[in-house]
C-alpha cells in the first residue's frame, strides 16, 4: 500500500471521527471517537516521518487526556444530550467560524505554494486559475483594510498605495505567466539533501542528541522543578493524625462506682 493511499485512509478516518465527536448524542461515544481521531493523527505524523510526535500523541493525548475525559464523563454520569435542540442555537456562530476556516484553507492552498519544478510542461493559466488568484488577493486584503481602518486610520492612504502596487505587480505576473511557455523558462532543479548524505538519523535520535548534549543543564533544572512540585503536592495532601475526642462507652460502664470521685455541691 502506497503512502498516498495510507494518507487518504488516515485523513478520511480522522475527518469522520472528528465529525462523530460532535454528532454523537452519548458523551462516552464522543470521547471514544476522540481517541480514534488521535490515533489517526498519529498515523499521519508517522507518514511525515515525525515518529516522536506520533508517540507523544499516543502517550499523552490517548493515554492521559482522552482517558481522563472518559473517566470524568463516566463519574459525572452525564445524561445523553439532545443534539437537535441545541444544534440550531449554535448554528450561526458555527457557520461563521467554519467560513473563516474554509477561507484560511482556500488561501493556504493557493498556487503560490506550488514549487516551480512541480509544474507541468504544458502549464498555462486558465480563467478559473486567474480568477482564483485575484480572489485570494482580495480576500487577504480585507483583514488588512479593516485592521487599518479601526486601529490605525491615519495610515490608510499609505496602505491603499501599497495595495495598489501589489495589485499591479500581481496583474503583471499573471500576464507574464500567460504569455510565457513553461518549457522555456521552468527548469527542473536537483537538490542534494545534505542531512541524509552526512548522517541519516531519526527524529527521536536527533531530539535525544540535542536535549542531552546542548540542553542537558536545562533538562536537569526542569527535572528538579517537577520533583519539587511533586514533593510539594504530596506534602500538601498529607494530614497529621490528631487524637479524636470521643467517649469510651465500654470503659465507662465497667468502672467501679466506689472508686470514683464525685463532686458534691451544697
UniProtKB/TrEMBL annotation:
Keywords: Membrane, Transmembrane, Transmembrane helix. InterPro entries: NADH_UbQ/plastoQ_OxRdtase_su6, Nuo/plastoQ_OxRdtase_6_NuoJ. The chain crosses the membrane at residues 6-22, 29-48, 54-78, 90-111, 131-151, 214-238. GO terms for molecular function: NADH dehydrogenase (ubiquinone) activity. Gene3D superfamilies: NADH-ubiquinone/plastoquinone oxidoreductase chain 6, subunit NuoJ. Belongs to the complex I subunit 6 family. This is NADH dehydrogenase subunit 6. It comes from Bathycoccus prasinos. The lineage of its organism: Eukaryota, Viridiplantae, Chlorophyta, Mamiellophyceae, Mamiellales. The gene is nad6.
